[in-house]
Amino acid sequence: MIYAVIDTNVLVSAFITKNQDSSTAKVWSAMLNFDIIPMYSEEIIEEYKDVLHRKKFDIPEQLIKDALNHIMVNGVRGERVLSDDFFPDPKDVVFYEVAMSKEEAYLVTGNTKHFPKNPIVVTPAEMLKILQREGSL
Prior knowledge:
Helix content is 45%, strand content 12%. The N and C termini lie close together (11 Å). It has helices spanning 8-16, 23-32, 42-52, 61-74, 93-99, 124-133; strands spanning 2-6, 36-40, 76-77, 106-108, 121-122. The longest helix is centred in the middle third of the chain and has 14 residues, at 61-74. The radius of gyration is 14 Å and the shape is globular. The protein is an alpha/beta fold and 137 residues long.
């Protein structure tokens, strides 16, 4: 079992892809199978709600409700660990700081350039390799 904060872009990609073999879809599947325990905060949930409801993504309302429910019911609320690192987008800070609140947790993102160079910041493909190494997939 691996703890991870999932960046919003990973969820959006998982929900809009037509390719269920994509790394983002597999990360979402790993969450549903409890191989990844999601970490969240109220700020992260609000960001998810805001972005997932954007009309351009056309994500079904029931999928959004089910996803948020899964994350909050089966996930772990994390507290922010303040970081002095630079972030190009201030909205990204909370994802990093919540991931830092639990030892050996990860931040899974499609935008690694937006975060400090840190081994906990991984792409969806890297997360799948970690899960395979751990014997979770």
